[in-house]
Amino acid sequence: MKPQIIRGNSHSDFRGILVFNNDYNAAEVKRIYFIENKSLDFVRGWQGHQIEQRWFSVVQGSFKICTRAIDNWENPSKELSFETFTLSTATFDLLHVPEGYITSIQSLEENSRLMAMSDYSLGALSDEYRFDINYFNN
User: Which of 2, 62, 94, 102 could form a disulfide with 88 if both were Cys (CB 3.0 to 4.6 A apart)?
Assistant: First the structure.
């Protein structure tokens, strides 16, 4: 499975605006947290999980999220390709990042806030991998 966007939508009428995502099933979610980067220049990453999967949705502003599939968790190839996703509050899109991927996360607007959801409770497994932001060649 590859990372994918689960598209949201919105409806506007005389009462106001309703933003929704009817295609997202939150049944697997065990934990929710928020990410707010300290500046637009800061890139949080690379970090991810061999077993855990995550879902991301922007609550305020916009974010660029890059994903990489890892070939070897102890010594990944420095040439691994990545895919870039841009999320904003315009629609209630969610990015699903399955197990086996790492991410880098960058705010694209001041005061941006990203909601992150995980299918494992905090401390349920030892499955966090971190690589220096400059580890990969591209």
Answer: 62
39 within domain boundaries? yes
Q: How far apart are CA 42 and CA 37, in angstroms?
A: 7
SS3 content of the chain, % helix, strand, coil (to 5): 0, 45, 50
Distance CA 129, CA 107 (A): 21
pLDDT (0 to 100) of residue 48: 95
Among 93, 135, 136, 101, smallest CA distance to 118 is for: 101
Confidence band of 123 (pLDDT split at 50, 70, 90):
confident
Start-to-end CA span in the chain (Å): 23
**Sheet hosting strand 113-118, strand order edge to edge:** 4-6, 94-97, 54-60, 113-118, 31-35
Please provide residue 118's backbone torsions phi and psi, each rounded to the nearest 5 degrees: -130, 155
Please state, for a pLDDT cut of 70, what percent of the chain lies above it.
100
Number of domains in the chain: 1
Residue 45 belongs to what domain range?
Answer: 4-10+27-119
Q: What is the CA radius of gyration of the chain?
A: 16
pTM, rounded to two decimals: 0.93
Report the sign of the C-alpha dihedral through residues 40, 20, 84, 70, in that order.
Answer: positive
